[in-house]
Amino acid sequence: MSMKQAETIDEVILFLDEIIEKAKIDQSNLGLFAILYREVTVKVKEGILNGSFQNGERMEKLDVTFANRYLKAYYQYQAKEKPSECWGFAFEQAEKFWPIVLQHLLLGMNAHINLDLGIASAEVCTVEDIADLQADFDKINAILSNLVAGVEKCLIKIWPTLTWILKYTGKIDTFFIDFSMETARNGAWKFANEFVAVPENEREACTVLRDGRITEIARLVSNPGYFVSAVFKFIRIFERGTIAQKIIDMQIMEEKNMECVVA
Predict the structure, then answer these.
(1) Which domain of life does the protein's organism represent (predicted)?
(2) pTM of the prediction?
């Protein structure tokens, strides 16, 4: 499989569509994060066209640079090469039975926001002008927050058993969503401001160090402790349908403009 890299936001969407369709054929959980990411990309494209960002040209450059880090990791994994550690961990979990859909989404978001977003932001800016990016950076994260807020509703629509579980263990979902968004947003912006000042010849070492830290967070998502893990296993047993059907269900939700966009 060739290593595809996008040059425009439309190409990002095209490549994500290809990943999603392949995931259906392969019955691969890798398609779950790709669905969420495609929706984020479409919303960013709409925002650029509507003039919602301070600098639309820079935002498309950031979006493409950001996406290409995910695409590179995906194609490296498909080619049996070694992607960044946190992406490798996320992709490996996609081959396992026990992680629930929410965990697959959060593992992808952890790698992409906590590692990739900071690096991509630094690559499209300089030390002198990165502060100008913050408003648009926050808008990208607002888009992510709005999409992730629909996760619980979609889970309930597809797996009604979750209604009962969340009623009696309500802290589980809020813990994960709070972890994924607030911590990731603040950490990614802080890292972007640190990384932009790192000399070119030191960036690889800096990236490896950050990658290791983000992988530790991924391990927490994968194994969040005995009680939460036990509840997630219970949820997993009652998840309906094949992996391909879950991906199709998510796409139908998107097409119908339902309140939630992921499941």
Answers:
(1) Bacteria
(2) 0.85
